[in-house]
User: Fold this.
Amino acid sequence: MPTVGTGISPDVLASCLQELMPSYSELFTTWHPILERVVLKGNLDRSVATGPFREFAVVTGGPGQVTQVVTGSEVIAGGRNQNAVRGDTYAPRLIYAFDVPGKDLAEANGEMDLARIIQHYPELALADFHERIAVQVAQGTGAGVGGFATLNGATTYSPNGAARSGAIQFGTRAQQEAGGLGISDLRYGLTSGATAGWYNQFADIPAAGFAAANGRNFMREVFFACSRQMKTLGACDLMLGDEGSYLNYLDSLDEQVRIVTDTTAGGDRAPKMIRRGVKFLEADFYLEDSIDITDAAWLLPGGAPGPANDGVIYFVNTNCWFAYTMGADASRETKGDFSVRGPFRIPEQDLFRYEIVLNMGLNTNQLRANGAVTGGAVP
Assistant:
């Protein structure tokens, strides 16, 4: 640590931030349930990328045929049906840059000033970056991070410069496959109408409201539709909802037993954050603060109110979600997982620049195991 009156080297600040990064990255993955579940299930791919995007295969049907034998002289039909198609996913490269004045470093005295600088610059920068990603994943409106994947199928994101639909759309299977929702049907490189089975589950609670229309019944309908798609995937295990939908569900429980789960994260150097979820069948149902149903991101094309403007609950099977990072050299392009780079002296200014680099993609290879219920925010 520097002594009183000696100031702080920019590299000291960088090394302190590097030391903080593991706990802060973990703080984010626990704070945001989707990334937490993906990481905990071992679906985070940190291998070196071989190109600018990743591909995955989706099987849309069986490989052969069945022949019924009645007399014994039937010719058994064989052959091979080519029923696999390929999707693709891009990892956007996002860089959060912030500048620290050399004057602040020079005037820093001892451990207390170092702690203050870390709090005022890197800590707040990282928290802001995390919050933007959380908003982007939940509803596709994260400031400056519009290339990162979103669940909101009512809007688009642009990981490689071209717009793609968010993962979960708010319409029936027929609407999704016919492209009748008025938005891009290209989800992870696959067009809904041209790829059999490339759709998500959906139900809309009638306008009568959650209580009068028995909203829990619609939630059960989508939960079981998601959970029975692939027996090897297991049941839907994660739900995210806006505040109105979440509170209406709690009100519907009345005096029934509630099972609450806490997720706590943090380390010696990071503040703890707790998210509480309520059990819905086998899934953990969380209130997602990043969902604002009054936002224009939920409107239909043309500006008319959409189903999600009355509330949205995502149903996610994290067994079929995958995250991956791009980059291998921590000292150059970084590993892309909220990695720190810098400091760099800005020419002709007394400023040192630091960068937090995120080069991460998030995708699913089984849309049918995911879904949404809208209309739940109406009491």
User: Anything to note?
Assistant: Residues 171 and 202 are 6 Å apart (CA to CA).
